[in-house]
Amino acid sequence: MAGKAEQNVVIVGGGYAGFQIAKELSKKLDPRRYNLILINSRSYAVALPAAVRLVVDAESKLEETAFVKLDRIYANGNGETKVGVVTSIEAQPGVPGGAVVLANGERISYAVLILATGSTSSGPCAIPENEDDVLPFVNAWRQKFAKANHVVLIGGGAVGIELAGEVKDLYPTKKVTIVHGGNQLINATYGNSLRKGLEKRLHARGVEFMFNEYIDDIPEPGVVGVTTRSGKQISDADLVVSARGGRPNTEYVTSLGEDAVNGHGFVKIKPTMQLLNHPSIFAVGDIIDWTEQKQIAKLMWHVPVIVANVVSFLNGVAPTKKYAGAPEIIVITNGKKGGMGYFGFLGGFTLGDWFAWLVKSRHFMVPKFRKELGY
């Protein structure tokens, strides 16, 4: 696949990282020299933070706003979106260029390749890649939450907390329990104020907690009751939901060799965000092997590094812009009206319900997402 130019700049993944990079590169690349190609499993981007409300609350009608076509992001039409799934990369260490291979067998060559495939989730936030499967998946989860009497959420990170808040918004009397492997919610990256503050807010809504516990196997549909790893029983649990954190979506990257990713599947990079042995391949977002929490907010620091270094590389200049990390910032919702935010600078501080409502809880930033995509 190729356009008018002889060489392709290929981006794999049309999530927050991929479409932002495509937008910026479309302003900077000469279409007479390079075809800009964004490969995504769907023709639209998904406002993933909104998934926790999408799969619980049919009244939100988020399926009408949180899926946005990837057809208006290119400056002067300089770029194209290709629907497909990359299954492998063909490249030789130290040799510029290569090709990606799609699930349908199609091969697309590249002068520069940018990997932006993000995380894969389990449970209700694992939006299917096939567009035909998305709405049936969403509606099935809405029905599951509606019918359940006792929802047990496995994982007390952001996803578990936010799902609990959404369930309590729609079904205030429904029993909700969070089972979490740690001794407090989320993790120790964040201050005690945030972790205890969120617990207090959820507890006030009737959410129960089981800390230092694990559920290894989700019961089959129709089975009531579940047992934790330590043997504790939750006898009336009729909906057990995985709310565990995501894993890097990088299986296709292992085609470059096992040394391209670490033991957890994160892509090894230099501070220039280039792969260690492949200077014409860059990686960004959740998939990079970097000691930091995996969050959309990091892209404010990731994207400028990638864009500057890709342009330098294409111009025959060694990339010099380096990623040096970013402050930890998170906003976690508690339904439509509350939540908390944490900012990991100035010693670390939190903001409460009013702030969470203002920036995230009321709309999950979907209007901003749509605007960024040209809608």
Q: Would you give an account of this structure?
A:
- By secondary structure, the chain is an alpha/beta fold.
- α1 runs parallel beside α6.
- The longest helix is centred in the middle third of the chain and has 17 residues, at 131-147.
- The chain is 25% helix and 24% strand.
- A six-stranded mixed β-sheet has the order 5-2-1-9-19-18, with helices on one face.
- It has helices spanning 16-28, 51-54, 131-147, 158-170, 192-204, 299-314, 353-361, 366-372, and strands spanning 7-12, 34-40, 44-46, 67-69, 80-83, 86-90, 98-102, 107-110, 112-115, 119-120, 150-154, 175-180, 208-211, 226-227, 233-234, 239-242, 247-248, 274-275, 278-283, 329-333, 339-343, 349-351.
- It is built from eight helices and 22 strands.
